[in-house]
Design goal:
Layout (H helix, E strand, L loop, with lengths): L53 E2 L2 H9 L7 E5 L5 E9 L2 E9 L9 E7 L6 H10 L4 E5 L7 H7 L6 H11 L7 E2 L5 H8 L4 E5 L8 H7 L5 E6 L7 H9 L3 E3 L8 H16 L4
Parallel strand pairs: 5-6, 5-9, 6-7, 8-9, 8-10
Antiparallel strand pairs: 1-4, 2-3, 3-4
Helix pairs in contact: 2-4, 2-8, 6-8
Length: 282
């Protein structure tokens, strides 16, 4: 079995707006633009019984607001034993009631938290990536700008579509019966990617010129991470300086093989491999 390299880490500088503030500690979190993440997780505190209504608690009501839930809607909740329940919402005179009616055999959320860092593409591919990444169980999507990517200003100058991204995530999460919305982070720069991705247990960057490590080999060499970061570049890829900066930050460049894939194909294939190896796919 191969062993992952242990590069010398340097601490990348914090991106603008991500300073430590008055606490003196680094700010490791990225805000969510779509009310996703842990606040949107739909849970029962106990193990419910089928067709026995449960009055929604303030915490459950807050989570349902993240989903823009409405009367009669069916959503997926997770109980205290991590079992999924299809649950109907019923509005009554004394408040909102939750009616679990179908227990699910599989847990709706993966044990592996995946953060996808995706360079802004030059065509309308990002919405496809958002949809498929949600279906594949990512926890967070972080769009970023690199030397070969588009900028958010360039994309929105042609036709502003970034405001639709939270809706894409919501629709996809409802369709695939997730119990938590993926967090959509604001667009960050390359320094921000280096800083935030390096916080994960497993940090991988897709690089078509990598000769030493394929993704499969890196997954075989690793233990069982709780959080993984996957960095996917633009159609122009990464330049050598960016690759060296990633290595120095502790992010491992890996290849998917001899064929050059579109960025959206590479992202979807890699997420599937990660979930199959460490998560809940397959």
């Amino acid at each position: 079995m191969s062993t992952l390299p242990k590069p010398t880490r340097r601490k990348p500088s914090l991106p603008p707006g991500q300073g430590s503030g008055h606490t003196g500690r680094p700010a490791l979190s990225l805000k969510c633009l779509n009310d996703g993440g842990a606040d949107s997780r739909l849970t029962f505190d106990l193990v419910p019984e089928a067709e026995v209504p449960v009055k929604a608690t303030p915490a459950q009501l807050q989570a349902l607001r993240c989903w823009r839930a409405r009367q009669g809607q069916i959503l997926t909740f997770v109980d205290a034993e991590l079992r999924g329940w299809r649950t109907r919402l019923e509005a009554r005179a004394d408040g909102l009631w939750l009616v679990p009616f179908e227990a699910l055999e599989a847990v709706p959320e993966s044990p592996l938290a995946i953060d996808l860092y995706y360079a802004l593409p030059d065509r309308e591919r990002f919405e496809l990536v958002l949809e498929k990444a949600t279906e594949l169980g990512v926890s967070r999507v972080v769009p970023f700008e690199s030397r070969h990517s588009n900028t958010l200003a360039e994309r929105d100058a042609r036709q502003k579509k970034s405001h639709r991204w939270p809706d894409v995530l919501l629709r996809a999460a409802l369709q695939c019966r997730r119990a938590m919305l993926p967090c959509l982070a604001p667009v960050i720069d390359w320094d921000g990617v280096l800083y935030h991705a390096a916080q994960a247990d497993l940090c991988l960057l897709l690089y078509e010129k990598e000769r030493n490590w394929r993704l499969r080999e890196a997954l075989d060499a690793e233990g069982r991470p709780r959080r993984a970061a996957l960095v996917v570049g633009a159609e122009g890829g990464f330049d050598e300086e960016e690759i060296e900066q990633a290595r120095s930050a502790g992010i491992l460049p890996v290849s998917l093989g001899s064929r050059v894939l579109r960025t959206e194909t590479a992202a979807i294939a890699s997420l599937a491999l990660l979930q199959a190896r460490y998560g809940d796919l397959g």
